[in-house]
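Exercise 3.2. Students should predict the tertiary structure of the chain below and write it as structure tokens, then compare their answer with the key that follows.

Predict this chain's 3D structure.
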Amino acid sequence: MFKWGIIGCGRISHRFMQGFAAVDGVELVASYSRRPETVDAFVAQYGGIACRSIDELLASDIDAIYIATLPDSHAAYSIAALKAGKHVLCEKPVTVNLAELDELLAVAKQTGLLFMEGMKPPFYPLYGKLKEYIANDPIGPVGYVRAGSAVADCPPGHPNYNLELVGGSLMGIAIYEAFLALDWLGPMQDIQTMGKFGETGIDMFAIFQTLHQNGYAQLYCGFDMHGKGDALIVGTLGHITIHKNWWNPAKATISYLDGRTVELNEPFIAGGLNYEIIHFCELIKQRKTESPILPHELSRQMIAMIDQARAQIGLKYPVEK
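Answer key:
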């Protein structure tokens, strides 16, 4: 039985617990939020102890911690948890920038504990099934990826609109697109970014083109338009469409140059976060310090891409020195 603690008891943590309930061999022992009323309501619903301080949580009898706060505090909480001897699963984006992540990973290496970014798409059954199918029936070398997400339904006052809390579409959404491009095309070599700012100073919409080791990507993200939410992966012998919402993948179509079409359907359950929890627990059992599916270097490349995109449109957060 793996004993878990949670830091941050907002919307994401409720989605996490939906998946958590579908995983065998795990128990929620303790939770912490800066708002006592929030953590009290959370444990009333899911069980465990409501901690009144981060130190109380870290002193609890737990094996692993899920960090689901806003990005401005991810690095500090992750480092504190690792130093307290806990394995850490931290929600994306894992830190504000690459410098923070490198500091965090140095601590993870020193402790010898497991650290993983909570980037859900690669752990969904459909994504794994797609990779396996393509390995056996390739579409040829992949040279182009097109993906994006734009949602226009965030209510006023949402943290996504708050510059102080590291809001904006690049940090909130485009980290998914960064993952997809890097996963299929390899390390990024160049980037061109355009963006539009909102009244609060965050990027409301951004589009970026990237050059990679193996090809090109065209990516977008936004909070003021409603996008299609699919993804296109193009090779020399065919192309793949991951249907909306591609970051919660359940259906893909593979179209081959020879005229064949293959449909892959793999519905997910419990909201989808259960798959990364299962993977994380398996890594603990195997005494691994990082995931082979989402290694530390890939997390570095993802946040580095967002760093460069932000720099090109002039977006810097108050928390950055």
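Discussion points: The chain has a mean pLDDT of 97. The first helix runs from residue 11 to 20.
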